[in-house]
Amino acid sequence: MPLGGVIFITIFILLFGSLLLFLASKVGRKVSDPVKAQSYECGIPVQEKKDTKMSVKFYLTAILFIIFDIEIIFMYPWALTFRDFLDRGQGIYILVSMGFFLLVFIFGLFWEIKSKALEWD
Amino acid sequence: MGSDSLEISINVIKMILIFLMMVQAVPILVWLERRGSAFIQNRLGPNRVGPLGLVQLLADAVKFLQKEEFIPAKGIRVLYYAAPVIALVPATLAFLAIPIGAPMSLEAFELFGSEWGPYRFALQGYEVGVGIVFVLGVSSLAAYAVLLAGWGSGNKYSILGALRASSQMISYELALGLSIVGVILLYGSFNFSDMILAQQGPLAIKAFGRELVIGWLPNWGIFFQPLGAILFFAATFAESNRLPFDLPEGEAELVAGFHVEYGGFKMLLFFIGEYGHMMVASGLMATFYFGGYQVPFMSPDQVLAWVSTWAPGANSAAVISSLLHHVVFLVKIAVFLWIFIHVRWTLPRFRYDQLMDLGWKTMLPWALANTILTAIVIAVAAS
Amino acid sequence: MNATSGVLMTDAFLFWFLAIVTLVSALSVILMVNPLFSALSLVMSMVGVAALFVTMQAYFLAGVQLIVYAGAVMVLFVMVLMLFDLNLEKKAFSRGPGSSFLKIASVGLFAGLLIGGVVFSELMTAENAETTATLAKTDGTRALGRLLFEQYLWGFEVLGVLLLVVAIGAVALSRSKGGTHAKH
User: Fold this and answer.
1) Nearest-CA residue of chain C relative to B167?
2) What's the whole-model pTM score?
3) Is B190 an 8 Å CB contact of chain C?
4) What is the ipTM of this complex?
5) Could you report the per-residue pLDDT of C92-144, keeping only the tens digit for each?
6) How would you classify residue B121: left for phi > 0, otherwise alpha for psi between -120 and 50, otherwise beta?
7) B338 in Cβ contact with B145 (< 8 Å)
8) Does residue B64 sit within a domain?
9) Nearest CA of chain A to the CA of C152: how many Å?
10) Class of domain C1-93
């Protein structure tokens, strides 16, 4: 894999974007006004509450995403070598072994749906 | 990257050209979107600036250039300015890995007085052996641009919008990854070129040791994986934050979600990233399910043979054949991009909980069912 | 990777560049005050590690590193860090130079001890020599797939169960008292 090419084009894109932003910042005017620096809140002044609790749903979504992502990643080598196993006559073996894994996966998904872990209300 | 200076320089120029092509396609796409959406909504859209309103985007770009640059006081400078630039990277890296034309094999020729050896240029930014895994890997980095933009703005509504947007993106990455497993089962390879070359000629179903050829359908992946194609296409809508999965940048609800504090050219960079993701999604749809750069029913060798009959010399035949394939690829991408635009102005937006339910409770089980079914069908058909 | 393709793209230059990027980001994980910048430096070091995997021709591993580690686990880290008020964290990071140096030095020494013990053990080097020799001859990912389902099948299935346990545990943790999802 051409790693040098990937690194080169990544640096090129970053420089290109930075150059564009830099040029754009030089062309526009600059009138500083304290109202402009306030955070946008549909026109009303910023209201800060003392302890805003962010929902734990984001954490749960991300954790469950990691779990299922890892399981999906394990299916990639399986899918790649599927035909090789079939050609050697080990089709049942490969299907059954992945079948157990998928059973656990499906059970996990089913449990997670049933336990309402990802209810967004 | 190449073995001598001409090859290296051509490869480098190729990468830069494809990147610039992606950036330049954005004004065209936005024009298409604005005119197309206008016709869908029974109005005219931009038609004053230039013929058919084609120069509208240039005027908009100039306007954006002149906008004042500001950063909210509570923003974090580094993240605020870095996020739009980072938004460009994943889409571009993924697009550069997709083959956009047939590889051209050039024989030895003479240029600037010296002999340059036989070359083989692939019309891709770079050739990646593990194509799909690389594309998935860099696409999953797209969540960072969103998160950094939201946090760097220092506005709690931006942070909330960014968290919702990234939650949506990662939920649909599951369905995306799983529908790709069906494609890998079908073609037995990660490499894009292998997948494209496996879709040559007319539809040929190999089952139980015999082969059934249906001459009037091309050998495209969509006929083998219809459910997978639909799931993949729907998941890419969510990945690029396009309607109907538009809530994170919901223009009527959150004003603009994670990029509410951005204006001017920085916002334009976000849109280049979004359209870049659309182009990657269209390219992947074409590659997996619609034969990539190939002309339907004809393999690249047949096209090359046909071009050689009327082209002067073998090298120009290779170049013309590659360009022809490139045009076919562009046509296929254009069809999918139009579908993206059409769907945007046709379907209403999902509510956020409907969106997450769809991703986890509907698309993921269906993608699993698709994988299991594909595996069983392939196993049964090969026995 | 073509080692003869001009001076800029040699293996050595690429390795040193990637190694320095990875090390600098790894160092900034522990040296940055803002926890979010630490997490972002960790992302950068993981991308660097993925690129180093590519130089060792472990392409699938590099892709998995990007998809799972940099694209899922670190997204979790960054998202969770955004749920907190980080000003308290920044104040708690003691900035005295003496204590910082002692902390980093002791962690570094301990890590060196562990890694030295692992690397110089007989078991590790013998097993490594055998597998790299056989794997280097075939296409990496296909060999990985075959090994996974032939030699390490038991580990693969146990991994599925382990992931299930993690999922259930995460959901249970989210229902602890005082949180938004607590059972009343």
Assistant:
1) C79
2) 0.88
3) yes
4) 0.87
5) 666 667 777 777 788 888 888 888 887 777 655 555 555 555 554 446 778 88
6) beta
7) no
8) no
9) 11
10) mainly alpha
